[in-house]
Amino acid sequence: MKNLILPAALLALTAGGALAQTVRLGTEGAYPPYNFINDKGEIDGFERALGDELCKRASLTCEWVKNDWDSIIPNLVSGNYDVIIAGMSITDERDKVIDFTQDYYPPTASVFVAKTADANTKGVVSAQTATIQAGYVAESGAQLLEFATPEETVAAVRNGEADAVFADFDYLKPIVDAAGGELVIAGEPVPLGKGVGMGFRESDKPLRDKFDAAITAMKADGSLNALLKTWFGDATKTY
User: Which end of the chain is more exposed for a tag (fewer CB within 10 A), N or C?
Assistant: First the structure.
C-alpha cells in the first residue's frame, strides 16, 4: 500500500543543536473534524493541530502519514509509522495489541442517524469496520453492514441499504446539520469507549511517555480544552 507522507512543518532542536528524533504520525484523513484532507491536499483537523502541538512540546520532529482505517493498527505494528492519532477509542481489546496514552478526547457518545427519527435501529445498521460502533451493533441484535470508510456508512442510509448508521456523534452531527432534514438523529445517544488516545507499539514505551507527558501538560494549562472547543464547539466535553 502506498502511503502519503506530509510534512508537519515542525522542526524541533535539542539543546545541543541537533535535530530531534523524527516521529511518523499515522492518521486516516477521512473522519472530520478529528482528521481530514483539506483543499490543499494536506492532513487537517483537530488531531493535526493537537499532534503538531504535542510534537512541539515533546521536542520531536514529526511528519504525517495517511493510512486507511482498516489496516491502521497492523501498519503501526509493522513499522510504517510510529504513532496512531486517528480518533481511536481506547478499548481493552486494542490494548492487548498496542499501548495507549491517556485519553486526549473524553469518553463521548455515539448516535444512530437515519432518514426518520423512528427508524429501526435494530434492523440493518451500517458502521465503519473495526470500530467500537461496529462491535456494538454486532452485539445488539441488529444486522451489521460494515464499510471501510465512514462516508460509505452514511451513503448506505441515503441509498436505502441500511436503516441507520451508527458512529461518533461528533462525526455525524455536522452531516445531519448539512442534510437539510434528509437525515436525523434516531433514538438516544449511546456512551461507548474510554475516550480517544494515541496508539504505540508495545516496545515504544519511552516515546509513548513523551506524548503522555505533553498531553498532561496541555490538560493542566487549559490548551487542550481550548483546542477541543475550537474543533467541536463550546458544548463539547472537556477536562
Answer: N
Question: Matching CATH topology for 4-105+195-232 and 108-192?
Answer: yes
Distances (CA, A) of 105 to 140, 207, 230: 25, 20, 13
Sort 181 into a burial class: Cβ within 10 Å, 0-12 / 13-18 / 19+.
exposed
Cell of 142: 441488529
Helix axes 205-221, 46-57, angle to 10 degrees: 110
Q: Which three cell numbers stand for residue 130?
A: 473495526
Q: How confident is the model over 63-107, as pLDDT tens digits? A: 999 999 999 999 999 999 999 999 999 999 999 999 999 999 999
H helix runs in 79-149, sequence order: 92-95, 132-140
pLDDT for the residue 110: 97
Give yes or no for a contact between 79 and 188, defined as CB atoms under 8 angstroms apart: no
| Fold entry, domain 4-105+195-232 | D-Maltodextrin-Binding Protein; domain 2 (3.40.190)
- Please state, in angstroms and as integers, the Cα–Cα distance from residue 148 to each residue in 5, 154, 176, 230, following that order: 21, 12, 21, 28
CATH-assigned architecture of domain 108-192: 3-Layer(aba) Sandwich (3.40)
- CA 203-208-214 angle, 5° bins: 170
The residues spanned by each domain of the chain are 4-105+195-232, 108-192
Q: What is the pLDDT of residues 111-125, one digit of tens each?
A: 999 999 999 999 999
Phi-psi category of residue 213: left, alpha or beta, with phi > 0 → left and psi -120 to 50 → alpha: alpha
Q: C-alpha dihedral over 60, 38, 33, 110, to 10 degrees?
A: -120
